[in-house]
Amino acid sequence: QKEVEQDPGPLSVPEGAIVSLNCTYSNSAFQYFMWYRQYSRKGPELLMYTYSSGNKEDGRFTAQVDKSSKYISLFIRDSQPSDSATYLCAMSKTNFGNEKLTFGTGTRLTIIP
Amino acid sequence: NAGVTQTPKFQVLKTGQSMTLQCAQDMNHNSMYWYRQDPGMGLRLIYYSASEGTTDKGEVPNGYNVSRLNKREFSLRLESAAPSQTSVYFCASRPGPFVSETQYFGPGTRLLVL
User: Fold this and answer.
1) Residues of A in contact with B98 (CB under 8 A)
2) Which of B85, B95, B75 is nearest to B6 (CA)?
3) With contacts defined as CB-CB under 8 Å, which chain A residues touch B94?
4) Given CB atoms, is B43 within the 8 Å cutoff of chain A?
5) Whether A105 and B56 lie within 8 Å, measured CB to CB
6) Quick check: A96 pLDDT over 90?
7) Residue A6 — pLDDT band, cuts 50, 70, 90?
């Protein structure tokens, strides 16, 4: 069983919809959580970083962590065609980033105009 | 400010050939990383360098060597390429060693080993 599970999609939604992307994990030691966006044939770019449980909002993006359920989510409001990309979750047990950062396999999202 | 650059963008090798993937960053970052990305596997860390002159193994180091030539450059070498090394390789950098600092990725090198 993988430490981090992410539905690969693909997920297609109409423009303007609210998108929910999710990851589940098995190791309760994870404390630091990240979401990356990766456009086709590009490198990942950091979207959101959160520590421990709770919500964090940045513009149209909200990251949510539920450590009791071992579940993290990324919500995109008022989705735009430019949001079409693969979204990767990542997590770490410590803030020391040179240790293993565990990535999900990514969810491919398409926003239909 | 180019960020993280990688060369080449695409390479085809025959089994047993060697090659070096080049990476450079112009952000004065201390930490640099090499990842591979395979379908269904996620990003996996090959090697990292916490600072100039130091390198350490990541999750999947077998078949690879690295050199931190100076603060800007971090190269990845395949001495004898195998089909299992067909992948997309990403270099990344970060100011320091902390997850709370943003990690910047390069555009990737697509490698096909026949």
Assistant:
1) 95-97
2) B75
3) 97
4) yes
5) no
6) no
7) very high
Distance CA A44, CA A26 (A): 24
Neighbours of A51 (CB within 10 A): 14
Rg of chain A over all Cα atoms, to the nearest angstrom: 13
CB A90 within 8 A of CB A101: yes
Query: Residues A84-107: what's their mean pLDDT?
Result: 89
Q: How many CB atoms lie within 10 A of CB B112?
A: 13
Looking at residues A47-75, what average pLDDT do you find?
94
Shortest Cα distance from A99 to chain B (angstroms)?
Answer: 8
A91 to chain B: closest CA residue:
B99
Residues in chain A: 113
pLDDT at A99: 67
Contact B36, B88 (CB under 8 A): yes
More confident residue, A96 or A43: A43
